[in-house]
Amino acid sequence: MPTKQAPDFHLDILVILVIDYNVGNVKSVCNALSHIGCEVELSSKPERIKKADGIILPGVAAFGYAMSQLGLTAQLIKEAVVAGKFLLGICVGHQLLFEQSSEHGRHKGLGLIRGNVRPLPPQQIVPHMGWNMVTFPSEMELFKGLRDKEYFYFAHSYYAEPSDIDTYVGYTDYGFKLPATVQKGNIFGVQFHPEKSGEVGLKVLRNFERICREVG
Amino acid sequence: MLTKRVIPCLDVKDNRVVKGVSFLNLRDAGDPVELGAQYSQAGADELVFLDITATIRSRKTIVELVERVAENVFIPFTVGGGITTDDEVDLLLRSGAEKVSVNTAAVQNPSMITKAAERFGNQCVVLAIDARRSEKDEGRWQVCIKAGSEPADLDAVEWAAKAEKLGAGEILLTSMDADGTKAGYDVELTAAVADAVNIPVIASGGAGSLDSMVHVLKEGNADAVLAASIFHYGEYTIKDVKDYLAENQIPVRR
Predict the structure, then answer these.
(1) What is the ipTM of this complex?
(2) What digits encode the pLDDT tens for the residues B157-176?
(3) What DSSP letter does each residue of A176-197 carry, written as one string?
(4) Domain B5-247 has CATH 1.20.120.420
(5) Fewest Cβ atoms nearer than 10 Å: which of A55, B15, B127, B190?
(6) Residues A165, A158: contact at Cβ < 8 Å?
(7) Which of chain A's residues have a Cβ under 8 Å away from the Cβ of B74?
(8) Domain residues for A75?
């Protein structure tokens, strides 16, 4: 069962909490995590966020809608990150990590990483949809054990441009150098869908689980 | 740069994968859950699941089957067959599909493409076209509906262009003349449609030799090749196809 509630006495089991906030794609993420043997919980309850060993913020939706659906959970996620919990944003969840987006108006994000979300350049076919090659610096822990470039599945029309100096960024080529993944301390973001990127994508999720486990 | 995609297709009837020739004479090809997991693991770029009895909207069992397939498929997953409303699209997306393909209902009611695209995004909506060479007009293809059993008064190239304007994010183009024959894709048809639209075209029907795949991706301007029999019956693996495409300078994910 992908959405099993972990009983409290199972404290030795690592729990990855997938934030449940009424946006698409949540199920695919849970399926992939269950497949790699994670204890997955789908919730946005404050006490569950506090208990979780790692948090995944998924999302297939428009930025403003996703942020409004997140509501008060936004503050809980920020507090969890400050407390040292590991956070992985996927697709729109990745974009929400940044300061603001210009998708259908101006919307504030979580502001955990400096930078803005903007539309893909119109010279390219939008959405950017399909398998594209991502290159990443060897320091990025999410990609440990992978080749220095790998294919991942993308489906998006906006992208985040990080402006922090103290972040690691991986890129893909879509007529320009498109930032595809970011890491700042305990915060990770991927614009692509690891849960839909085959065996390599599952490895990224396994790495996230390992990162959470080593610290937790 | 995006890669060209290799897509196995599961034609499903009574919870089993089947395959026929030119849409007839079906034979069993295996369990959809097993085959889906196998292809996902073997490096397929996407999976298409078509309920050929077109009963998705009326039968709960199909939705449950889609859920079970999705639990083991970690690549993009398209589901189609008998979908008529955006609520049915919603149900399938919630069951684990990334995209849905619409066919007959879109011909009968083109506004459903727009409705689904506005609600879920163009990238979710695949228009499936079953086309066959016109007997009276050379170099034209006629659209057929209801699993190819009924001709519609539509030209395949014009329909594809119109569907793009209505909000379709992709065209799944099946040549009925070639389907299941292994005689090669209809390159002419694929090129005619691909040149008329700015959205990806998946070539389907007739996959036989590896050369025919190279041919339809290069000369047919297809973005993806879909095949069923050659994979189900083990003639080629996904890896065989990708290695061959790469040898022929076609960018693929390996």
Answers:
(1) 0.88
(2) 999 999 999 999 999 999 99
(3) SEEEEEEEETTEEEESS-GGGS
(4) no
(5) B15
(6) no
(7) 31-32, 35, 195-199, 201-202
(8) 15-215
